[in-house]
Amino acid sequence: MLLEVKSAQLRYGEVTVFSNVDLDVNEGDRIGIVGSNGAGKSSLLNCIAGDLPLFDGSIVRRNGLTVGYLRQNCDFVSSNTLFDEMMTVFARQTALTEQIKEVSDLMSKQDPDGQRYRALADKYQRLIAEADATDAYNSEVKVRTVLNGMGMSEQSRQIVSTLSGGEKTKAALCKLLLGEPELMILDEPTNHLDYKTLDWLENFLSEKKSTLLVVSHDRYFLDRLCNGIWEVSHGSVTAYRGNYTKYKQLRAERQKSQLAAYEKQQREIAKLTDYVARNKARASTADMAKSREKALERMTRTEAPSADDRPPRFDFSYTSEPSEFPVTVKGLTLNYGDKTLLDQGELQIRRGQKMALLGLNGVGKSTLIRRIAAQDAHDFGKIVFGKNVRIGYYDQENLNLDGNLRTLDQLWFDNVRMSQTEVRALLARVTLGAEDVNKLVRELSGGERAKLGLAMLMAKDCNVLLLDEPTNHLDLPSREALEDALKAYAGTLLFVSHDRYFVNSVADCVAELSDGKLAVYEGNYDDFLSRKNSGGATPVEQRCKPVGTYRNARRRAEETNRARRLKQLEEQITELERQSAELNEQLYSPQIVSDYSKLSQVTEKLASVQTLLEQTLSEWEKLGEE
Q: Mapping DSSP to helix (H, G, I), strand (E, B) and coil, where does residue 136 land?
């Protein structure tokens, strides 16, 4: 065992971040740490790394354990060039090779039969053996390999302190990888990395068999690397075996089991309570009632499963279909300064396709999607839109938002025909509640601004969506909610994303921008990788298979009726949940508890409301699946 966490508790003032945490890390473990923003993931890493003291409990490390810690957005300061800074990891090996050279030079000046020569020869042999054991002669090769794999070869002669923030974080990760500590602690290591670098990093870590603790929103990364997941939620940390996909399955099963046990005990409690209330006053049954009352007191109460923070409910819809080819790019050239990003680019998107636009950092993906969204007259004939196309564009920088407006006004001014009630309801659906609507947009967090930007698209009647990094700043539940919404969206989609799990889940076609050219591949991200690795690129002239999106009048009417019914059910569910909460509160009020007649009435009404709520939820889920 490398590390053990015992009864750990962390508090900031009166706020408890987590408590009663018991965990262990064994050699070869690769543990992904997940949880909503602000749940305490980074705080847990800081405690394990020894940077943050626990309020209570302990963290025991194996004697001599070497730990490497990559912090988010670390400020890597050094006056060395990037290459020279990486070589400091191999200071011992560099000193060995210099000593070997010095001893070799001295030997060349000595009499081969002399005592001094023999002493130097013995030292030379010892140094050579140590150099072989530490692989000293391959130090430079290792540095160049890692820098190349991490896409930093071009910066190798640049002074570290002059690198950008993202490049400094990548440089810190390179140094950590070269150091090969026994335990690597990585906080969001996939930020700033393109898909090619991510693929290299995953392979590198897999081959090294490193022990890892990693916080990441990159579910593809967690799936490929991890054999365990720690979930930080509601002040506790729960450990699961398996990768991210397995964690989701086990978590759902655990919650289902917990809920069943809780509901079973609640029924038993209600039954015993009812018996005591009805029989305690009767002389003939008072003893039995007291016996049941004592049983209630002795009962170890099963806690209700902690309610997840409700994820946003995204929904994108439209009322009219575009023509068969909503967007066509013909001979488009894009330049940035002296660099050509796209040279006579060709691309055609069919109605209903969901196309991911991939490429390395800086190749021009955002520039291309922004150019298409601009619908500029200067691009007439080079960017052609079909008939009846209504485009919605999501900008990863949220430049369409006015920081001086209230959140409510930002959405309302963009959709003046909506009532204030409708605007508030739409914001609530993306979990921007009453405490958020009066905030200035500039005061919102990155995730909140992303949700506002997506809500603005939801309010539009868009049959073509152009999305530039829509998952940036979203936590995992929000990303999964967006995935579900886009998979259900019947319109046409072109999007840029570094989230490979998201691409894999949503895309049915991948366009890669590389060296100023566009190449199109059928299928999702896994299919794209498979074809890339096998050298099976599909020329841009070979289009993705057509996606059938024709809907006749009858089907459109059915979908309209289904959408209307879904809205009615959502309103009904909200009202029934409100009634259920009120009745539950009444059950514990002194006036009701002391009056058996009123208690029975409230209990019966609550049972009726819950039955109706279950029926309504069942219908809502069925319609949602359809």
A: helix
